[in-house]
Amino acid sequence: MTLQNKYQHLFCRRLKQARLRKDLSQKQLGIAAGIDEFVASTRINRYEKGIHEVNLETAGKLAEVLGVPLAYFYAESDGLAQLILDYAHSQIDK
Amino acid sequence: MTLQNKYQHLFCRRLKQARLRKDLSQKQLGIAAGIDEFVASTRINRYEKGIHEVNLETAGKLAEVLGVPLAYFYAESDGLAQLILDYAHSQIDK
DNA sequence: CCACTAAGACCCTCTTAGCGA
DNA sequence: TCGCTAAGAGGGTCTTAGTGG
Q1: How far apart are CA A92 and CA A86, in angstroms?
Q2: Which of A7, A37, A85, B71 is most deeply buried (CB count within 10 A of its CB)?
Q3: Domain that holds residue A41
Q4: pTM for this entry
């Protein structure tokens, strides 16, 4: 594994950025997403470093905890990523 | 596995729709994405039925073959999915 | 506390070999 | 040809146990 392609790299970067925006530690994020507290830190670290890939279920929970649409993690350009965030915020106001 | 959560279900639906829009068979899509021709049909079928999850590398190739941003597969609402497609098309015109 | 890692058990995916429409 | 599936082989992920900042 280990960051073989651009999407993997983008996922890691966006996950980390979203986590820091919420001011959470890797362990806190994992626990909030329903991961056992004894492995939360390890697993989130693995995901952020691009060593392991998240499964869709966990990715969905992470997105919810971090307050971003799941698609945000997979946006290839920063322009699209911002568009997705703006869309999410506009939906909240509705 | 087997469609445990809403994101899995959405991924399957969006993948199938995008494939049919391009008028490709499951086998053709797999081969175009670089999968060995002897397993292409089986693997794409697995992904569309939600039995197996795609890895990020394969998902990226599928998105490229189908002419959609990777994030499209993960959009939770149809509104966001359309927004992502529109964004991709506007980038082409530039 | 924090981020991060090695190693093996575990379990999901991939391949093989088929099915009926 | 198409979509689809069972079962075992194979390999990536998860857990355990731990390091250093």
Answers
A1: 10
A2: B71
A3: 3-92
A4: 0.93
